[in-house]
Amino acid sequence: MKNVPKVSLTDVLGVFWKGLRPKKWSFFLTIILFLANSVIYLFVPLQYKKFFDLLSAGEDRTLVAQELIHIITLIAIIHSMVWVTFRSGMFVMSSIEAGAMANLKQISFNHMIDHSHSFFANNFSGALVQKVNRFSRAFEKLYDTLLFNLIPLVVNVIGILLIIFLQKPEMGYVVLCWILVAMIFSYIFSRWKLKYDLEAASADSATTARLADTISNQSTVSAFTGSSYEYDGFKLVTNNQARIQNRNWNIGSVLDAVLSGLIFIVEFYLFYFAIKYWSRDLISVGTFILIQLYILSLAHRLWDFNRIVRSIYESFADAKEMVEILKLPHEIQDLPNSKTLKVEAGSIKFEDVSFGFNEDRSVLENINLNIGSGESGSHRTIRGGKVHNSQTPYKSS
């Protein structure tokens, strides 16, 4: 595709919003529900801290048992609230996602189908189909990432940091350093990896295009005994895609290795400080439980940060090709101030019309043809459409 328009992340998000706008209030409702879900869940570890503090207090077991039952009842209520908010959000999300994906496919189709014949002649039909499908799936991936990864990450980082700082500021600084190092490294690494994600998306399009167009031209392949050529060609593109995909997976494994190493380090230091404070009777046994639960939760969410950045850039890579087509002006357009055509009679008339390739290879010269109303062919306007889309007359009176 020549003269490809430049596409930014803002352009992609703008088109996504067009597909999402009809359900914008439902969209905001899902944000509220998933925010509430993540905030409510932060209170569960605090209740377990109280639970184990009571167990280790050495007080009268009859009295302690009543308090413990009260705590686990409160935990059950919190879990019920988490369940209600999450399931409600899922039902609303499903409706939004299905509708928005359909809207995006319609936006893509409506713009693409109005391109000229030369646009479709210069692009594999299989690749165009793949771009439309990947575009809608890119929205699905981005929306899922927002609800299931980004919102819980933000809530957990802010909430857990606040709670740990209130327990012991020194441990809070350890957690803060861990979060900053993990996020900065993940972001820089994922930005660097973007060029490889774009290459993988391009390789996937090439494979799909080769497969679709070979299948659609099967009769031609058989007629001209081109099977061997197609075998080798498809093997070449699939092997190239496999090589690129394998490289991308290996690059991702490096990031996973670094993040898992950081988790081991911060867990060791937090428990080291916790033991020191416990030996001086500065923290309770329940604090160990609180730290462990929050470390596991933060580790899971920080691992998600890598997935968040990766999903955003992969979604951008998947959507970019379709947005390029959406930003590409149609080759055949009405002239400024052109009048709307009104068909008053079903006749076709050519006066001194000439057709050719690039104005230097003449095909038809000075055609004069008049098909009157009611004659065969006068009602078949598709013929005129095909001529219009295939070749633009370079001379007519």
From TrEMBL:
GO terms for molecular function: ABC-type oligopeptide transporter activity; ATP binding. It is a multi-pass membrane protein. It is found in: Cell membrane. The keyword Cytoplasm does not apply. Residues 375-397 are annotated as: Disordered. One of its GO terms (cellular component) is plasma membrane. InterPro entries: ABC1_TM_dom, ABC1_TM_sf, Type_1_exporter. Residues 28-314 form the ABC transmembrane type-1 domain. SUPFAM superfamilies: ABC transporter transmembrane region (SSF90123). It comes from the Bacteria. Gene3D superfamilies: ABC transporter type 1, transmembrane domain. The chain crosses the membrane at residues 27-48, 68-86, 146-165, 171-189, 253-275, 281-303. Keywords: Membrane, Transmembrane, Transmembrane helix. The keyword Transmembrane helix applies. Residues 388-397 have a biased composition (Polar residues). This is ABC transmembrane type-1 domain-containing protein. It comes from Candidatus Zambryskibacteria bacterium RIFCSPLOWO2_01_FULL_43_17. The lineage of its organism: Bacteria, Candidatus Zambryskiibacteriota.
